[in-house]
Amino acid sequence: MTPENQPSDPNSIELNPIFARPGEATALPKTRLPEEESLPETAYQIVHDEAMLDGNARLNLATFVGTWMDDHAQRLYLEAADKNMIDKDEYPKTAEIETRCWTMLADLWHAPSPEGTIGTSTIGSSEAAMLGGLALKRRWQQARRAVGKPTDKPNLVMSSAVQVCWEKFCNYWDVEARYVPISEDHKVLDGYRLEDYVDENTIGVVAILGVTYTGMYEPVKQIAEALDRIQESTGLDIKIHVDGASGAMIAPFIQPDLEWDFRVERVASINTSGHKYGLVYPGLGWVVWRTEEDLPEDLIFKVSYLGGDMPTFALNFSRPGAQVLLQYYLFLRLGFEGYRRVQQNSQDVATYLSSEIAKMDAFELWNDGTDIPVFAWRLKKGHTSNWNLYHLGERLRTKGWLVPAYPMPDDLTDLTVQRIVVRNGFSHDLAEDFLEDLRAEVAYLDSLDGPLPSPSAGAGFHH
Ligand SMILES: *Cc1c(COP(=O)(O)O)cnc(C)c1O
């Protein structure tokens, strides 16, 4: 008898219909460790099914973070899932590839000499921003101590529309956060009245390339010129850190003439998120300093590497190494031209969507997606008092689209906007589907006779 012909064993685990076995027909505890083991199939199915209740990542128009990679990347990801980035000695190739990646970025961002720069991968832009901020703080402290001045009141100057990581930096490292409010006239930090905010205790100015709320670029060169004037009149030499979480992987490819990077001499350091427009799955950021001198020596630790020491500057110790390999894969796979085409395509989709949304009676654009492929709109004054953008967000969610509505930051908090982040994988075809749903939901809301009750919390604002 061949095995296939053997009579079936009614107790065989494989034969039992899935969902009808022990542990599947009942619920497992959710707040304490289960007493006993489960079959791997059972545990898998339960976790898989719960995750199914999450929104569909590809329809998440709220996030900046990568939600699509090709099959080769998926394969590499699985193969490299066991790599720990900190084990430089054990995985010297991964360590070398990390260095190649940030050296390529230094070159892309016009560092005066890519060999004389220093950089690192991080878990994301938040960690990268902490490192950039720490380097500014330490340099300021050293300069102050050298001339016998106190170092107890550092401050950092930035737009009120900064990403939350900068609030965290200031809170965690005891730096006073000085926010320059944005307004209808100054939609981004542009150097206007900067002299009112900086003083001898300013460790640096953050310029954002791609403001999270709206996708707009802050004019780094113009901010640097304002700081030049301040230096002329006060002698203060204040450096800029560019938070290029998204824009540092857009501008080099589709706005190559825009001077926002190390071409601007005041720019000491730049961060980006490999997992945003670097096109890698979540868990990767980068930070690069203009020169080795911009990163104070005493912040650097040494880990063992091929019998010697390798410098590291990081908040974490262990961290996945796979994302670094994925970034390198994409650098090789796409090259400059490939990135240019991908980012240009995202921008084309963004400007198409914004132009169609601008045609709708209900809305008014805040910006149009010509900086990074991100734009926001508001409800036109006087259009309706029956519904607002939170209601619209809820309606769109029933179709699967996650499009957050949220208030603008300080001084503009009365203004609610809705934002779309166009990423690789949001095709023209999907954009058409989205517009169709958007028009239908607006028509539905407009057809209501009276005001809707206040909506529950919407899709949420993704920083
Ligand atoms: C997303 C974002 C961050 C935070 O980046 P993570 O990679 O999510 O940690 C910081 N600054 C800006 C401008 C961002 O858009």
Describe this entry's structure for a reader.
This protein has 463 residues and is α/β, with parallel strands linked by helices. It folds into 3 domains: 3-54, MYOD Basic-Helix-Loop-Helix Domain, subunit B (Irregular); 75-330, Aspartate Aminotransferase, domain 2; 344-446, Aspartate Aminotransferase, domain 1. The longest helix has 37 residues, at 322-358. It starts with 39 loop residues before the first helix and ends in a 17-residue tail after the last helix. The protein has helices spanning 40-52, 71-79, 92-108, 125-146, 164-172, 220-234, 251-254, 322-358, 389-398, 428-446, and strands spanning 118-122, 155-159, 176-180, 202-208, 240-243, 267-273, 285-289, 301-305, 308-312, 363-365, 374-379, 405-407, 416-421. It is globular and about 75 Å long. It has a 7-stranded mixed β-sheet, sandwiched between helices. It has a 4-stranded antiparallel β-sheet with strand order 10-11-13-12. Helices cover 33% and strands 14% of the residues.
Report the principal-axis shape.
globular
Low confidence ranges: none
Spatial strand arrangement across the major sheet? 1-7-6-5-4-2-3
Bound molecules: pyridoxal-5'-phosphate
Task: Please report the number of helical segments.
Answer: 10
Please give the number of β-strands. Answer: 13
Question: What can be said about this structure in brief?
Answer:
The chain has ten helices and 13 strands. It is α/β, with parallel strands linked by helices and about 475 residues long. Bound molecules: pyridoxal-5'-phosphate.
